[in-house]
């Protein structure tokens, strides 16, 4: 279970950082008409988000999260800064032994 939590934590941070980079790339694309960053960061974020989903579901199954808790954690990788908050909540709840 410790390995699953570590994998989730790493991917939550990585996805969070790439989501912020994606926001910057979108601003560059639409405000400065520079779509090069979007072509690079977009697919990378998509790939990493897919890995985040797999690791999140793995952890959810091992910790017996509710469907609602699992869905909220899965969506956290789509809203800037939310994956960082979700990672903290998951770690807190796991340390307390409370399922999401």
From TrEMBL:
<keyword id="KW-0472">Membrane</keyword>
<feature type="transmembrane region" description="Helical">
    <location>
        <begin position="44"/>
        <end position="61"/>
    </location>
</feature>
<feature type="transmembrane region" description="Helical">
    <location>
        <begin position="12"/>
        <end position="32"/>
    </location>
</feature>
<keyword id="KW-0812">Transmembrane</keyword>
<protein>
    <submittedName>
        <fullName>DUF3817 domain-containing protein</fullName>
    </submittedName>
</protein>
<feature type="transmembrane region" description="Helical">
    <location>
        <begin position="68"/>
        <end position="86"/>
    </location>
</feature>
<dbReference type="Pfam" id="PF12823">
    <property type="entry name" value="DUF3817"/>
</dbReference>
<keyword id="KW-1003">Cell membrane</keyword>
<feature type="domain" description="DUF3817">
    <location>
        <begin position="5"/>
        <end position="90"/>
    </location>
</feature>
<dbReference type="InterPro" id="IPR023845">
    <property type="entry name" value="DUF3817_TM"/>
</dbReference>
<keyword id="KW-1133">Transmembrane helix</keyword>
